[in-house]
């Protein structure tokens, strides 16, 4: 099987990594700082900040689309829209691989959820 070396990348993990140059045939494989695989961004530091930023941006765009599209913001309809369109982008997709553990990442995702809650719930008696 022929490999395209232009599509191959290597990630170096760890502070004391020698960062060797790998060859495939006679061509070297380039080293990158991050790679997106199966929708999850893996950084060489193994921090999930880039994934959290991407998820928050995507969820905010979806919230903006929902807010601008629907004039009648019935609580039950908005809750269903949040559960089906926004929440999967924030916490459900592959969360085991990129679970945020830094306080700033958690706060970023909670900020999006608070925005969704303000948009969704005008009645204070209802909950998620």
Q: Tell me the β content.
A: 5-15%
Label the structural class.
alpha+beta
The total strand number stands at 6
Distance between the termini: 51 Å
**What is the average of the pLDDT values?**
85
Order of helices and strands: EEEEEEHHHH
Cross-sheet strand order for the largest sheet: 1-4
Instruction: State the helical fraction.
Output: 40-55%
Radius of gyration: 20 Å
Q: Tell me about the biggest sheet?
A: 2 strands, parallel
Spans of at least 5 consecutive residues with low confidence: none
> What global shape is seen?
elongated
Brief synopsis:
The protein is α+β, with helices and mostly antiparallel strands. It has helices at residues 49-69, 75-92, 95-98, 103-120, and strands spanning 9-10, 23-24, 27-28, 30-31, 34-37, 40-43.
Characterization of the model:
There is one protein chain. This protein is α+β, with helices and mostly antiparallel strands and 128 residues long. The chain has a domain at 49-120. Helices cover 48% and strands 12% of the residues. It has four helices and six strands. The chain has helices at residues 49-69, 75-92, 95-98, 103-120; strands at residues 9-10, 23-24, 27-28, 30-31, 34-37, 40-43. The strands form three sheets. It has a two-stranded parallel sheet with strand order 1-4. β2 and β3 form a beta hairpin. α2 packs antiparallel against α4. The protein is elongated, with a radius of gyration of 20 Å. The model has no long low-confidence stretch (mean pLDDT 85).
């Amino acid at each position: 099987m022929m490999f395209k070396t232009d599509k191959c990348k290597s990630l170096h993990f760890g502070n004391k990594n020698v960062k060797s140059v790998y060859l495939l045939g006679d061509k070297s494989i380039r080293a990158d700082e991050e790679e997106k695989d199966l929708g999850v961004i893996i950084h060489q530091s193994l921090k999930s900040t880039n994934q959290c930023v991407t998820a928050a941006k995507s969820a905010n765009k979806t919230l903006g689309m929902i807010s601008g599209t629907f004039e009648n913001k019935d609580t039950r309809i908005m809750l269903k829209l949040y559960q089906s369109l926004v929440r999967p982008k924030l916490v459900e997709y592959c969360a085991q691989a990129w679970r945020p553990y830094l306080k700033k990442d958690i706060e970023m995702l909670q900020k999006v959820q608070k925005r969704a809650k303000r948009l969704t719930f005008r009645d204070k008696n209802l909950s998620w």
